[in-house]
Write a structure and sequence with these properties.
Shape: globular
Number of strands: 6
CATH architecture: Roll
Number of helices: 2
Oligomer: single chain
Distance between the termini: 21 Å
Strand content: 25-35%
Radius of gyration: 12 Å
Structural class: alpha+beta
CATH topology: SH3 type barrels
């Protein structure tokens, strides 16, 4: 996700996590579903400038940089 795309994301939007997150996360509890819903947004000093609060498969809330996500493909 680009910085411009990250700035347009709002609470309640659905995002697709980068598969690398699940590939490199050892604990199944911390893995992300195929599509996540943004629960909160924080503007911070990070690569993208935004952090998204999302829920893991294990129902934990985690905060990840917007760079870990992309906008889901639109079906036409």
């Amino acid at each position: 996700m680009t910085k411009d795309e990250a700035m347009r994301v709002r609470v309640g939007d659905n995002l697709a996590p980068d598969p690398m997150w699940n590939d490199t996360t050892v604990s199944r509890h911390r893995k992300l579903p195929d599509i996540v819903t943004v629960r909160d947004i924080k503007g911070v000093r990070s690569q993208s400038g935004r952090m998204f609060h999302v829920q893991t498969i294990g129902k934990d809330d985690i905060c990840l940089d917007a760079g870990w996500f992309s906008l889901p493909e639109k079906s036409e």
